[in-house]
Design a protein that fits this description.
Distance between the termini of chain B: 30 Å
Largest interface: A-B, 31 and 33 residues
Structural class of chain B: alpha/beta
Number of helices of chain A: 13
Structural class of chain A: alpha/beta
Number of helices of chain B: 10
CATH architecture of chain B: 3-Layer(aba) Sandwich
Distance between the termini of chain A: 32 Å
Order of helices and strands of chain A: EHEHHEHEHHEHEHEEEEHEEHEHEHH
Largest sheet of chain A: 7 strands, mixed
Number of strands of chain B: 9
Order of helices and strands of chain B: HEHHEHHEHEEEHHEHEEH
Number of domains of chain A: 2
Number of strands of chain A: 14
Strand order of the largest sheet of chain A: 3-2-4-5-7-6-12
CATH superfamily of the largest domain in chain A: Thiamin diphosphate (ThDP)-binding fold, Pyr/PP domains
Largest sheet of chain B: 5 strands, parallel
Strand content of chain B: 5-15%
CATH class of chain B: Alpha Beta
Oligomer: heterodimer
Number of domains of chain B: 1
CATH superfamily of chain B: Thiamin diphosphate (ThDP)-binding fold, Pyr/PP domains
Strand content of chain A: 15-25%
Helix content of chain B: 25-40%
């Protein structure tokens, strides 16, 4: 499987789109070397704004740009992009449905070295709770590229969470990305797993292992976390013996919350693979940290077996 | 451009009319932001009826000057001005805060023609104004952005983030006006959380600063004209005002930040501003 870094793909895509569309501007809070908006800065210095280390002002400034016809991409780590300026996103961006795109980079625990302060594990919950916000989470570089393009075409607030590390290509290159559409990455008939981000790849690995044990796993890439198409989710959850959700996010307010709510009242067992209402911590590598918090293919296999019984 | 005596008289009359509408909108027996709305009546009158280029028939005219009320709780003054100018029908003023009305307790851009952004969660308007001024620079437009701040509001840290943005990006198409009425919701600002000294702070942050009597039409107009000539720096006009200005029982009173007028007070206040 080819590997790509979503941050790099995002940075390159923004430049490509910036060449076609002069309305695109980018703002960053001293993380452009990491969020990769420095690529945009190099090509379009007059459409890039370094906003200092001040995320709240950055969001509202982007609102002013957007209200003057710009498509404003605001960039920081997920914690600082979604958490710190919560009220600015709520009031200046979302009540008025302003055309601001917020990029939460180094999401989840993908910034493994920096510890709890820098690990964005509640961003989906926070962003989903705000009316008018669209919340996206790409599975890989291929989807990132398509998703950023879709965000430009969509008129309104969008939040995209981007993983820090290299991720294997999973999304079909020939498929169009549409906000609100779910993608069955692997067909299966016994258990459906709804996964997002890097956990989709983990689910695929789990599916291979489960196949050998006679359990067929349907892997669904939920890259749009809001708005959620309830009927589509119910359809994908039908005809199986159990449901699993998997996300690199807190178990509160993210994919597990969304799916269990939609499937309420249905007699189908559900298990969630997610971070259990606790903060992250530093580790020397990403996989070690994922394992520590139970975000592994093994955990998915166990969950699938549990609901399949 | 100096302002004529006739124009001054006309704008004074408009400020009286704005106050009449503010009082009428609030009514008797209901809470409303009387104090902070009355303190900006002259500033709003000069901006909307004299200084700014705008078109009530075409609120989204791309070359219009922008007005942002960062202290969004004083929306009553802006609503009164917009109605007077014909942005929406005057009768709508009678629907303030009613369920389903366009006139929310704090201004909403998707509901009211002429409202540029959603403000009222304090501290955000100046940043939005910066973004609009930056867009004006990118697009080489001549429009100017005006933003009214409260002196209580500037305790919000985001204001100072925005003040650095305005100076760093040399936003000389941005003019901020500080409504220095000295009183916040719970009492005098200096006794609670002193945000002084205002001119010195803004100067230190790289702004061109002037200080005026915020109820003197001529001083307001001249300060705004002077701002047109400043290059390479944003402009701050510190406007010394009186909270509740013009309504004797409310002047300088924190109780009328968001106070309730008795029927008697209501009638007294209306009579003061009636033609």
């Amino acid at each position: 499987m080819a590997m790509q870094n979503c941050r790099k793909v995002y940075g390159e895509t923004l430049v490509e789109l910036g060449r076609e569309n002069e309305r695109i501007v980018a703002l960053d809070a001293d993380l452009s070397k990491s969020t990769m908006t420095r690529l945009f800065q190099q090509e379009f210095p007059y459409r890039f704004f370094e906003m200092g280390i001040g995320e709240q002002n950055m969001i509202s400034t982007a609102v002013g740009l957007a209200l003057s016809g710009k498509i404003a991409f605001v960039n920081s780590f997920a914690v600082f992009a979604a958490g710190r300026p919560y009220d600015q996103i709520r009031v200046s961006v979302c009540i008025g449905k302003v055309n601001v795109k917020i990029i939460g980079s180094s999401c989840g625990i993908s910034d493994f070295g920096d510890g709890a302060t820098h690990q964005g594990i509640e961003d989906i919950a926070i962003m989903r709770a705000i009316p008018n916000m669209t919340v996206l989470s790409p599975v890989d570089g291929i989807e990132t590229r398509k998703m950023v393009k879709a965000a430009v075409e969509y008129d309104g607030p969008v939040y995209i969470r981007i993983n820090r590390n290299e991720m294997p290509d999973v999304f079909p290159e020939d498929k169009e990305f549409k906000i609100g559409k779910y993608y069955v990455i692997r067909e299966g008939k016994d258990v459906t797993i709804f996964a997002t981000g890097y956990m989709v790849f983990k689910a695929l690995r789990a599916a291979q292992a489960l196949e050998k044990e006679g359990i067929s796993l349907r892997v669904v890439n939920v890259s749009t976390l809001k708005p959620i198409d309830e009927e589509a989710i119910k359809e994908l959850a039908s005809g199986v013996k159990g449901i699993v959700t998997a996300e690199e996010h807190s178990i509160i307010g993210g994919l597990a919350s969304a799916i269990t709510f939609i499937l309420r009242g249905q007699a189908v067992p559900i298990e969630a693979v997610a971070i259990r209402d606790c903060f992250g911590q530093s580790a020397l590598n990403y996989e070690q940290l994922l394992e520590h918090y139970g975000l592994t293919d093994t955990a998915i296999i166990e969950a699938a077996k549990k609901v399949f019984k | 451009m100096s302002i004529s005596d006739e124009k001054v008289v006309q704008l004074e009359k408009i400020a009286r009319k704005l106050r009449f509408d503010i009082v009428t909108m609030i009514g008797a027996g209901k809470p409303g932001h009387l104090g902070g709305s009355c303190s900006i009546a002259e500033i709003v009158a000069v901006l909307y009826f004299h200084k700014m280029h705008h078109d009530p028939e075409n609120p989204k005219w791309p070359d219009r000057d922008r007005f942002l009320l960062s202290k969004g709780h004083a929306a009553l003054t802006q609503y009164a001005a917009l109605a007077e100018l014909g942005y929406f029908h005057k009768e709508i003023l009678n629907t303030l805060k009613e369920l389903g009305t366009i006139l929310q307790g704090h201004p909403e851009m998707l509901r009211v023609p002429g409202i540029e952004a959603n403000t009222g969660s304090l501290g955000q308007g100046l940043s939005i104004a910066c973004g609009m001024a930056m867009a004006g620079k990118i697009d080489k437009k001549d429009y100017r952005v005006y933003c009214i701040l409260g002196d209580g509001e500037i305790a919000e840290g985001q204001i100072w983030e925005a003040s650095m943005t305005a100076a760093f990006y040399k936003l000389d198409n941005l003019v901020a006006i500080l409504d220095k009425n000295g009183v916040q919701a719970t009492g005098p600002i200096v006794e609670r959380y002193d945000t002084n000294p205002h001119p010195d702070k803004w100067k230190a942050f790289g702004w061109a600063v002037s200080e005026i009597d915020g109820h003197d039409i001529r001083q307001i107009a001249e300060a705004l004209d002077n701002a047109d000539r400043i290059k390479g720096r944003p402009v701050m006009i510190v406007a010394n005002t009186v909270k509740g200005k013009g309504v004797p029982f409310a002047e300088g009173k924190a109780d009328f930040h968001h106070g309730i007028m008795t029927e008697e007070q209501y009638q007294t206040a209306r009579a003061l501003f009636e033609d």
